[in-house]
Amino acid sequence: MEANSIGTMDKDYVWITTNAITSQLDSLNASIISSMQGVLGVKSYFSTTPKSYKDFHFRFGVMFHLQYLGEPIPEPGTSAMQAYDAARAVAIALMEKPNLKSCTNLTDDVACMHEMNGQQLLGKILQSNFEGLTGAFNFKEGKLAPIHIFRIVNVVGKSYRELGFWSEELGFSESIHKASEYNRSMSILGQVFWPGGPWSVPKGWGVPINAKPLKIGVPVATAFSEFVNVRYDRPGDKPIVNGFSIAVFEAALDLLPYHLPYEFIPFNGTYDSLVQQVYVEVIDAIVGGTAIIANRSEYAEFTQPYSDSGLQMLTYFKPKRRNHNPNFRGSIWNQIGTMLTLAFTTLFLIQEEKLHSNLSRVTMVVWLFVALVITKSFTASLTSLLTVQQLDQTTIDIETLKKSGAKVGCDANSFVGKYLEVVLGFQPNNVRIIGSGDYYPQALKSGEIAAAFIEAPYVKVFLAKYCEGFITSGPAFKVGGFGFVSIH
Length: 488
Hints:
D-Maltodextrin-Binding Protein, domain 2; 20 strands; 488 residues; five-stranded mixed β-sheet; 18% strand; single chain; 4 domains
């Protein structure tokens, strides 16, 4: 309604809504729907023909009528059905009996439920695999399996009309039957009723010739300059900004069918402060290694992640060499020379000389045995040199680090320091701030810190530069990946 009041629902505007908004269309009142004329949206697809859906729909209607007498009964909506599926997954997990011998009646069932701790319950839920109201309900790598088919809807009049479907593998189609015609272009779905009328397709964006460039904030103090690097040729010059994040941003702009003017605004401070600059409208957007976390989402919108998500623990182990023979010393060339000399001498004596006495024969047997031992010893030493050095198998985990009071490191200006203290439970005086990614090797080797907690994209860069002795340890902690930040 706010967009309608400021005139952005008129001709030449395009509004495309995601499932989070479009799924609410069934429950919106007429006044809100009337202000959304021409909106195009994607909506999760689910079948309404199964008996399970019809039973749920009937019971939903009955319960709504009992609680809200006289009001029209709305459609349940995607969110309601997803909540029902989630509750069903919890119920199924609770009813699984860990001890079938003792759980023989209702009382035992309740006892078994109480015996199940939170971690066990979570494990049961993650094993869920059933056909829910919104489709298959199962988890992949700890995440709910995504929906692969969406409905394309267009708000017209007091409701909306269904234009067709979009499938991740096949594209757009007017129906979801196997014999349907698919196309990568939405034009197969027919005419769309756009804001202001259906007679012309709006451009969707119009940039005035004298438009001011967007102010794109970029972080200056970064631990890993491979992602964002800000430098100046001379004091007072415009900043030269490059790095992986900048390359992704520029590649995205190249896909636009119009020119979008922008300028980079360097910012020297924390990432949280940088996000706040968008909220107070000092800058328009942020391009950089900005992790998508909950408190930042309250002040700005994030794009889809363009990198891996997670926080990983990095440790260092001193490499050890093994299989050394103290009786076989000298350089490799001396060892090779000794072995060849012994071998050829032995072969020569066997082929050209005749041994007449038993003493000579016994001496030769002993000599052959010594040559065999030396050859095997050399082979073991050479294998040790050519084998990747084995690392100590000592396991370091979070609890060990906390109980021992070990120091751990993290990037400056990032959210990781607070995460280590608030979420993982480290004492503040045991968390060391590392200003540069190149200082981690020294800090870990010297024992200044026992482990480093670094965001997953940075870990890949670190291990590519410093691979010997450094490994990731333990599970990856789930935090949002990197995304671009735009106006809230």
